[in-house]
């Protein structure tokens, strides 16, 4: 191999950089081959006196690039709320610890349930929605769920938790506590030192939560409602599985049944509420109620949520109303109620409990079918109707002005209702509605429905206390005849005489 002159030895790297490295295009080594395809030696075919250096570059096969494997997300960890999830079995050591240290019967109930709530949160993965729902359930049961000022995971530095046991960390970071003692007592929450007006009632709290609290939160969102009820059911199962309070085990099981009933009944309640008061009562309200608040429209039978765009007219409403009355009650009454002298003589709003539901008998059903066939050519859809029997009920809802204070209805009364609605109602449900009384035979119909409540409806006074604030001294005097606009003047910065300290 020829050696390169010294003055050109520094240009080797430059020459290499000028080479055409094109092996990836099937041309590697072409420059180092003679026309016959044989490799040439360095300097071969070149004048040695030209002072050029020749470098033999051998190209190796390009290394195959490894396919970059994207990070595959691992399996999601169980949240504890899956459909077929169950708590793992306890080891003998864990079982003995729970029986003798954590949940023994000789330990106060408040201590056991407090630790149970904290351990339940630690063993479940709750998203923000589920966390809010569970906190509202605990608050309804008198457990303080407010964030503690200098504790909880929002305030504790992870370095401060090093060296502590799981139980100690859980106790430091927990927000769910049962209040104790008389220091800074908050009357919103249960305190074992002041047990008046409180009692342990798992079933009652579950009923109040499923019928009022979560209903207000979810409105008509069935998925959110179901998630909330399933969360409480999961917690109650945890309480029973770990034998937290054996003295209340039957009450815990009743609460579980309330949750199961809620999951079955509440979707139907929401569905039937959208149908009320039905085609018959809608026609009656159109005929006899002056100044309807909204345009009266005919309900389509083939859809739960859609309605006909065409409003009811007088003849159609009269046919629907008169035919149903004639079939179910008396033809003569039907004539008088559809006559020119028919009128509403009384309208009142009240709360009633459903005590009986009567579907149409075979005779009435055949009459409805025959009448429907006759009316179909003129575009009138006649629905089969039946009866609902109700009686007045005093409803506890947190308001002092009861709807039944001046109600003239004292006993049981029947109302005509569409059969498609009757099939979804249940005895024991509560209905708040406006009732109209006619001048013919004391006939009554439902003008409008304000609310339909489930059979397990329970209102808990604690719902009114959750946002309660203790009164504090107010140094500003109340408005008086001498200073009627005091509040506005104080906000505007106008100097006024300070009054005596007073409690508000």
Automatic annotation (TrEMBL):
InterPro entries: Arb1
Region annotation Disordered: where it falls in the sequence: 1-82, 476-504
Residue ranges with Polar residues bias: 1-11
A cellular component annotation (GO) from this entry: ARC complex
Ranges of biased composition (kind: Basic residues): 64-78
Biased composition (Basic and acidic residues): 15-36
Pfam families: Arb1 (PF09692)
GO annotation terms (biological process): regulatory ncRNA-mediated gene silencing
Protein name as catalogued: Argonaute complex, subunit Arb1
Taxonomic classification: Eukaryota, Fungi, Dikarya, Ascomycota, Pezizomycotina
């Amino acid at each position: 191999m020829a050696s390169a002159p010294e003055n050109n030895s520094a240009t080797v790297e430059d020459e290499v950089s000028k080479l055409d490295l094109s092996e990836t295009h099937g041309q590697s080594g072409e420059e180092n081959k003679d026309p016959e395809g044989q490799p040439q030696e360095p300097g071969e075919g070149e004048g040695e006196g030209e002072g050029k250096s020749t470098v033999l570059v051998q190209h190796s096969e390009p290394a195959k690039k490894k396919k970059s494997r994207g990070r595959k997300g691992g399996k999601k960890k169980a949240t504890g709320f899956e459909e077929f999830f169950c708590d793992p079995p306890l080891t003998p050591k864990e079982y003995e610890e729970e029986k003798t240290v954590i949940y023994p019967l000789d330990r106060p109930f408040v201590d056991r349930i407090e630790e149970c709530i904290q351990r339940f949160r630690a063993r479940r993965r709750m998203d923000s929605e589920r966390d809010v729902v569970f906190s509202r359930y605990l608050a309804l049961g008198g457990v303080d769920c407010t964030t503690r000022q200098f504790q909880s995971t929002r305030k504790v530095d992870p370095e401060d938790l090093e060296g502590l046991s799981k139980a100690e960390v859980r106790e430091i970071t927990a927000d769910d506590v049962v209040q104790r003692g008389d220091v800074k007592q908050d009357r919103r929450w249960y305190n074992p030192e002041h047990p008046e007006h409180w009692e342990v009632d798992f079933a009652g709290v579950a009923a109040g939560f499923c019928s009022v609290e979560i209903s207000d939160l979810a409105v008509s969102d069935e998925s959110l409602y179901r998630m909330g009820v399933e969360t409480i059911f999961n917690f109650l199962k945890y309480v029973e599985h770990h034998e937290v309070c054996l003295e209340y085990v039957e009450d815990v099981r009743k609460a579980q049944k309330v949750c199961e009933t809620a999951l079955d009944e509440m979707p139907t309640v929401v569905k039937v509420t959208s149908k009320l008061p039905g085609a018959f009562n809608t026609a009656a309200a159109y005929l006899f109620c002056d100044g309807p608040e909204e345009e009266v429209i005919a309900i389509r039978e083939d859809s739960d949520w859609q309605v006909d765009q065409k409003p009811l007219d007088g003849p159609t409403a009269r046919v629907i109303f008169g035919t149903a009355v004639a079939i179910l009650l008396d033809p003569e009454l039907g004539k008088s109620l559809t006559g020119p002298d028919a009128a509403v003589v009384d309208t009142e709003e009240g709360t009633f409990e459903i005590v009986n539901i009567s579907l149409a008998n075979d005779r009435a059903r055949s009459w409805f079918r025959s009448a429907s066939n006759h009316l179909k050519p003129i575009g009138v859809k006649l629905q089969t109707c039946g009866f609902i029997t109700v009686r007045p009920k005093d409803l506890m809802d947190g308001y002092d002005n009861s709807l039944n204070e001046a109600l003239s209805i004292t006993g049981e009364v029947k109302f005509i209702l569409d059969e498609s609605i009757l099939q979804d109602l249940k005895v024991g449900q509560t209905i708040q509605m406006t009732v109209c009384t006619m001048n013919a035979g004391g006939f009554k119909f439902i003008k409008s429905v304000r609310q339909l409540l489930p059979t397990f409806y329970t209102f808990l006074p604690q719902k009114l206390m959750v946002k309660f604030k203790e009164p504090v001294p107010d140094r500003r005097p109340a408005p008086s005849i001498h200073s009627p606009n005091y509040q506005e003047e104080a906000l505007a910065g106008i100097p006024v005489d300070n009054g005596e300290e007073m409690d508000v």
